[in-house]
Write a structure and sequence with these properties.
Layout lengths: L3 E8 L3 H11 L3 E7 L5 H7 L4 E5 L10 H13 L5 E6 L3 H9 L4 E5 L3 H42 L8 H13 L6 E4 L6 H10 L8 E5 L8 H6 E2 L11 E2 L1 H4 L4 E5 L6 H13 L1 E2 L8 E2 L3 E6 L3 H4 L7 H7 L2 E4 L10 H15 L6 E2 L1 H9 L5 H15 L4 E2 L9 H5 L12 H5 L18 H15 L4 H8 L3 H11 L2
Parallel strand pairs: 1-2, 1-3, 3-4, 4-5, 6-13, 6-14, 7-10, 10-13, 15-16
Antiparallel strand pairs: 8-9, 11-12
Helix pairs in contact: 13-15, 18-19, 19-20
Length: 488
């Protein structure tokens, strides 16, 4: 007969009762622990997760009031409020047992007991425990899913727009990898559409009817990493007022997208690797590991040379994640896609802001095509959105964009010539592919200074939003707002 997967704790001062009940129950349940000293209960709970506790009402010779049972019942419920406790009472002590049930016990068994009655009572208690656990997990998971619903809807509503040969190859690779459960690593600069590619993999997979969970590892503080991904139990640490399901459990059956993987420190990479290899996770404060079934898609803007540097990235984790590797080209290398993407966002933002349909002038198209777009699709999208908001015409012109015409971009910019070694001169050394004129000496225009600072930080960190925001003392969201404000 297959045993029920459950851990039973029996607490009684009668050693004969403990031995006999353990021999009886271990044939039915996977794990049985006995205890003849109730003062050991707190230590046992710190080391184990019990599904059901069988607790005697009286300890010591001559005791019959049940007061000790009430005391330890209250102790257990304080340690773990959702405990399933079955009281053991002497024959004739039914009134005491009923009072215990009023105080939180689930059921009671009277001595001398019948074996069939004990097994039936504990089997029912185990099922109750499992039902409560499943209900609580569903409740917490639902709260987690509600938080990401808007994000998921926005991503799923978008499609990869491409006409270029390089992107045709990428989409072919996505189509071949998607139906499998292979882990995928997506490489590419910021703004190249790594999350869209991940979503396309999910939508074309066998998991498409389950959740697509996106996690920005660059935005998670190191101290919260385990809580966010693995979850935690109530009281696991200061501020843990409720149980929380981690992202790995919340994405069970679906796809987990780990964005900004390159920002993960080495010691956290080790923890992630262990969990992915074992395919089970132990929430903070819990003693029992929980299995999960997710497909992992990871993304980073790190170059392959950096990923293969053992001082920056664990090679065993890299091997685990890049069963299939997809490289997304920057926008400047897929010029055939620039105007279709611009037109897509033009239609989208005209509709969003209640504007009449607009076109793009020849000069503006020419400038858009020849711009290097260091921020890739994200920068193009922000430029289109800003132009739609600010234009007063039926057609977007070059003046609606903060871009130079191809002819102008070929002319030397005398402002970029070195003058003297001051801070302003250092800021002005930003590359020509960021179309920002340097701040003139003595100029106190706050917007110009802010734009310079943001542009310099972005260029310094190769448009890594997390690193740029940290250097500027901003949140990622605040940096995105300022990039949009300045058309960067």
């Amino acid at each position: 007969m297959m045993k029920t997967d459950a851990h039973i704790l029996i607490v009684d001062d009668d050693q004969d009762i403990l031995v006999a009940s353990k021999l009886l129950l271990k044939r039915q349940f996977s794990q049985v622990t006995i205890c003849n000293r109730p003062e050991q209960i707190p230590k046992l709970f710190s080391e184990n997760d019990f599904d059901v506790i069988l607790l005697d009402m009286n300890f010591g010779p001559g005791e019959s009031s049940g007061e000790q049972g009430f005391y330890w019942l209250d102790k257990i419920l304080n340690i773990k409020p959702d405990s399933i406790i079955v009281m053991i009472t002497a024959h004739g002590g039914v009134d005491v047992a009923v009072e215990a049930m009023k105080l939180g016990a689930t059921d009671f068994i009277a001595k001398p007991w019948q074996n069939e009655k004990v097994i039936a009572t504990l089997s029912t208690a185990v099922q109750l425990k499992k039902s409560r656990t499943e209900a609580e997990n569903l409740k917490v998971a639902n709260q987690t899913l509600v938080q990401v619903t808007n994000q998921l809807n926005q991503v799923q509503a978008q499609e990869i727009i491409s006409q270029s040969a390089t992107m045709t190859n990428v989409q072919s690779l996505i189509a071949r990898a998607a139906p499998t459960d292979a882990n995928v690593l997506i490489l590419g600069e910021n703004g190249t559409g790594k999350e869209l590619a991940a979503n396309a993999l999910h939508n074309q997979s066998k998991r498409c009817n389950n959740i697509f969970m996106s996690v920005d590892l660059g935005a998670i503080a190191e101290s919260l990493f385990e809580s966010e991904l693995f979850g935690h139990k109530k009281g696991a640490f200061t501020g843990a007022h409720h149980d929380r399901v981690g992202k790995l459990q919340a994405a069970n059956g679906g796809t987990l997208f780990l964005d900004e993987l390159g920002n993960l420190p080495l010691h956290l990479q080790a923890k992630l690797l262990t969990v992915l290899e074992q395919r089970q996770v132990t929430p903070l404060g819990a003693n029992k590991a929980v299995p999960f079934d997710v497909r992992v898609i990871a993304a980073t803007n790190m170059k392959k040379t950096e990923l293969t540097n053992e001082s920056k990235f664990r090679q065993d984790l890299l091997f685990r994640l890049n069963t299939v590797e997809i490289n997304l080209p920057p926008l400047r290398e897929r010029s055939e896609d620039i105007l279709p993407i611009a037109q897509h966002y033009l239609t989208l933002y005209c509709k969003k802001y209640g504007k009449a349909s607009k076109g793009i002038s020849k000069d503006a198209k020419n400038a858009i095509l020849h711009d290097s777009w260091p921020g890739n699709i994200r920068a193009l999208r922000h430029a289109i959105e800003r132009a739609v908001i600010l234009t007063e015409h039926d057609e977007l012109t070059l003046s609606d964009f903060q871009l130079s015409s191809p002819e102008q971009s070929k002319k030397p910019n005398i402002n970029n010539l070195p003058t003297k070694p001051d801070v302003n001169n250092q800021l002005s050394t930003i590359s020509d592919d960021v179309s920002v004129s340097p701040v003139n000496e003595g100029e106190l225009n706050l917007e110009a200074i802010e734009k310079h600072a943001i542009s310099t930080a972005l260029k310094k960190h190769r448009y890594n939003i997390s690193h740029s925001a940290k250097e500027l003392g901003l949140t990622r969201a605040a940096l995105y707002r300022r990039m949009e404000k300045h058309g960067l």
